[in-house]
Amino acid sequence: MEFVLVDSLVFDELQTLRILDYHPGEEIFLMVTQGVEGRYFSMHKNGEVLAEEVLSEGPNAFGMVLHRAGFVGNELMFVSDQEIFIYDLDLQQLRKFPFEQETMVRMIHGPLDNFNAFKINSIPHGIANLSDRLLDKYPIDYFDTLNYFHLVNPVDGSVVKGGKIDDSSIFKQGYFYPRKDKPVFFSDMLSEVMSLILPADSILFQFDENLSLVNKITLDRQQPDQLSRLPMEEAGRSAFGKDISLGGSFTHMAGQGNTFIVEYKTGIDPEQNRAGLSREELAAVMASRKTYYYPIMEGRQMGQPVLWDKPGLLKLGLGDNRYLHYADQAEIHEEEKDYQCYYIYELQVKK
Q1: What are phi and psi of 194, to 5 degrees?
Q2: pLDDT digit string (tens) for 43-67?
Q3: CA torsion, ordered 331, 334, 340, 344, to nearest 10 deg
Q4: Entry pTM
């Protein structure tokens, strides 16, 4: 299979916008400016701005720290620091609820991953937990106790917890893989299951609306991939500084319904990893990591992983096997443009 350029998303803005989520029914994107201002846009796929609001301060604001944001049904959920805020599609605040979680990183209007939603008993919920906190000391049974999904009902703020990985996971074999344990999720309003993979693992777990494990897909990791590990007895904050660049990672998922892609980045070439590298040489070594996308459809892998050799990533699924390519505009285009243009690729069978 291969990714073929088929379309583009164009909007008349000189400033760089982060693209956060896409609503397939309404065909609108949620975007935000870079920096501390926190100017959010609801934008139609034809480039028309439908709503624009600054949400850093004022009675309509949620603040500055943003962990995740996206569409949950026909509303928007903003997961902030210890609170969740619900907005309508015109970016007007409707409700807010407490949601306490310990997080490792707090970014200003810069989510670290995609927002994912899912229906439980036909009611939209948002996956709110990051599960990225760093413990001083990890219990031996840490991965036996985790509920990987914390789903929040946007109507009343109630939380449904569940979803446990089984013994097929690399994390259930008595070892800890530093900085490669934060879960990567995918699901949306059209999905029949929620999908989960851990960066150091090779098992994609799928759960139903009862948060029961219903399917597993083994994804063969690409080389180079020299994972750093230590016994669970030694797992803790002191392990955070270990060099993890030699190991590969599953880093991202995007799609629509039961069709999606799983992003994987290889480790760096161990032969190039040596002491005394200059900053430029180190940057070149890190850039040598290769990116692959694993196509998933109806609970199984379709074909071989597809190499992605362009800058940036396939950020969002737009349906019909189409994906939005997001990267710095200077990396995408040879000439500077007076508007923003992001390309759309379709995953097709190689001719």
Answers
A1: -100, 135
A2: 999 999 999 999 999 999 999 999 9
A3: -70
A4: 0.94
